[in-house]
Every structure is written in structure tokens, then in C-alpha cells.
């Protein structure tokens, strides 16, 4: 079928074991690595809408917003330096993701998480004490290094620790932590904006140290994954850890599959070179396109600049920050929907439904803004219309939160065999960070030039990515992570790239392709 092969619970190997309290606890602790990413996403938009912050660091933007009434509504916040404050973090995260892949592979997943937390903590302290733009940017660059390490190691850790039947739910815990971080940042921004003395932005930026400390402390107590222990040459220790996380001594079948995958990985001396081989073409394409598509949905327009966007649409200071809180609450609640649904209904149906809902919402938002502000950016939006636009944006955020948000991290982390897993995740993170950087750096400029058409621009890409998912992404729910090649082998398009010797575990391919 053109839509890709479906792999249900009966097609994968049924390993012994149960869902233990130990594995759930470790995955929840590891998922806290998403808090540092989410907090930073949410905090920048609120801070850049605070007058005291703009006056100190970006006075030209403050002048355009408050004194130059001739300025188009679309262009009031157009400043490359202001955008660089937001985007510089993701440029450093891009570079750090390549170094972190080596750390993750050689020293383990938990060491990578610890390193990320420490560097992020240094960046939070520097930002809270910033006296000029240079200190702000340097602090953001350090925050980016921390995020690069966390986003590299945490999704891999979760995918390797979780049993196949709940891998989606536990891995989506990372995205849930991101959304909680965003919501916490929105609430803190709303509170600190009330501080009359004008130092509220310092508190907002400095409090990034809290999730960093949580990640540092958590990483001290986390065990490493059986895959990582085995990869570093300790088979007996790896087997004992597998027995512990599965709650049974009878793990021979799963351990043998891990060992077989590890032996294959040992023969790969250059994972960056090998991932370019035809046999890894499906993984390479997915690890590039999924993070690209995730960012080109336009979601970080909302995450980064929600308060700025709502002020642009005519909301007051308090209303714009409160509207960002509302979208943050929607984000958290609807990510929980994905935790419930990903392992029950599958990844594909969530991708497809979410894509269609986002397309509809983005087109309607463009129409409403176009009607009220036209192309010259002059006009007003009545209260009822503004509330309807807020509803559409919330519906758009909801669709992303149960589809491209969590699944954009889950799918790339679960499809790569061990020998290219670190390289694949590094590509996933670096592509994600690169396009996050582009969105953060150029959105306000694009809004100034494309006006309401910017939302149509993003809607067009969502159409393309939804078509791609329908034809080229097979279902991966309930498939053991070391058996994922059976899915690609059975797919109508990708199957020709997967050699027979890449399929381990005795899968019946005729059943998969029937």
C-alpha cells in the first residue's frame, strides 16, 4: 500500500518482562531534560515583549512600538538584534549536537545529560546578570550548548530504556516536559512583568537555572541504558541492567538481539560515513525531513513570539502575556493526548490528523488578519475577532501538540539501528536546531514583508509534509527498537534499500507485507 506497511502488536518479537516502576521512574527523571528546552523556548518571547527589557537592550524597537505610530503593525518588532537574542541559542545547539553525539556514544547517555545541565546552568547565570547585549548573546550561546547535549541524549535514553509497547508514551514524556517548561515560562513572564522596578526580565532569565539543576541532580542518579553499557564493552553489566528494567531474569531473547545489533555496530568504524550508505537511506531521510518539517509548521512562531504576536494583533501587555499562558496550557493538555494515543492508535494517524487541522487553522488565521489589517498593517481587530483568532491559534497548537510536537522527536529516535543511532540523532537535533534558528532569526522580518501571507506560507509546507507522511512513513508502534528494519523492509518504497541480512530476530516478512 502506498501509505506504508502497518506493523501491529503481533508482528514484533514479544520479549519477556513487564513495565516496572524502576523504568518508569528513570524515564520520568530523564524526560526532565526537556524542561530546559521548553523553559527557554517560552521565556524569550515574554521577555522580548517587556518594555523594561526593550528599553535597556533594544531601544530602537521600544521606540517603534511605543512612539512611532506611523509604523506598520507588521513591522513594529522587526530587529535583527532582537531576533538574534532568540535565535543564537539554536545556532550553538546545532554545533553542540555534533560534539554531543561523540560524548553520548563513548561515555554514555547520562554523562551527556549531565554535561548539558552544567553548561545550561552557566548560561542561565550569565543571562540573569546581563549588563549588555554581548552578555545576553554569550549566555544564550551557552544555553544552546546545554540544549544540544540534552536533545541529543534524552530521546535516545528514553527509546532504549522503554519496553516497545509503551515506548511512545515514555518517549513523549520528553515533549511533555518541553510543554511544561513553556507553560512555566509563560506563567513566570506574566508574574515578573508586574514588577514595577523593571527587573522582572532578570528573574525570568535567571530562573532557567532551576530546570538545569533538576537535570544535573537527576542525571547523577540515573542508570545508563543496557544498549549504551553493551556498546562500551560490559555485556554482563548490560544484561543485569536489562533484567532490572524488565523486572525478570528471562531476558535472553531481547539481550541476544541487543548483542547482535551491538556486534553489527562494532563493525562500523565511521557512523557518519556509514549513515550515507544506501542501506540506511530510510533513516537518513527521516532524520533530516522530520525535524525540518516540525519546524516549518511554524509552531515556534507561537512558542518564541506569542506575546509579541498577540501585541501585534492589538492585545494589551497583560492580555498578550495571558494569551501566551492559554496557548501554553493547551500545549500541555494536548501533549497528554499524544501520550495516551501514540501507542494505541499509532504514529501515522496522529501525524495525518494533526496536519489537516493545522492547515485549516493557519489559513483561517491568515484570512482574519488580512481582513482586519490588509497589506499596509493599519487597522484594528475587534475584541470578538481577536478572541476567535486566539481560538484558532489554540486549535493549531493543539494539533501540533498531539502530532508533530512529540512525534517529531519520537520517530527519529526509535528508527535508527545502534550502529548509526548517535549519528542519526545528531542529524535530527542539528537539522531541528538549524531551522529553529532560521525561524527565530527571520520570523519578525518575514512578518514585516509577507504580512498575513506568512501564515499561508507555513500552511503550504504543512500540506507537503502531510502528503509525505501518508506515502513514506510506515507505522512503528509496538515494534521493538532493534527490530525496526523489518518495518522498512516491508515498506513499498524503502524496502529496496534494506538488505536481507539487516533484518534480525526472525521476522516473517510475508506477514508484514500482506
TrEMBL record:
Presence of keyword Membrane: yes
Top-level taxon in the UniProt lineage: Eukaryota
Domain Major facilitator superfamily (MFS) profile: 26-477
Record GO terms (molecular function): monosaccharide transmembrane transporter activity; symporter activity
Presence of the UniProt keyword Metal-binding in the record: no
UniProt entry keywords in alphabetical sequence: Membrane, Sugar transport, Symport, Transmembrane, Transmembrane helix, Transport
Spans through the membrane: 19-39, 81-99, 111-131, 137-158, 170-188, 200-222, 284-306, 321-342, 349-373, 385-405, 426-446, 452-473
Cellular location(s): Membrane
GO CC aspect terms: membrane
Topology within the bilayer: Multi-pass membrane protein
Major location (coarse): membrane
InterPro entries: MFS_dom, MFS_STP/MST-like_plant, MFS_sugar_transport-like, STP/PLT_plant, Sugar/inositol_transpt, Sugar_transporter_CS
PANTHER family named in the record: SOLUTE CARRIER FAMILY 2, FACILITATED GLUCOSE TRANSPORTER, SUGAR TRANSPORT PROTEIN 11
Entry similarity comment: Belongs to the major facilitator superfamily. Sugar transporter (TC 2.A.1.1) family.
Protein name (Swiss-Prot/TrEMBL): Major facilitator superfamily (MFS) profile domain-containing protein
Organism: Populus tomentosa (Chinese white poplar)
Lineage of origin: Eukaryota, Viridiplantae, Streptophyta, Embryophyta, Tracheophyta
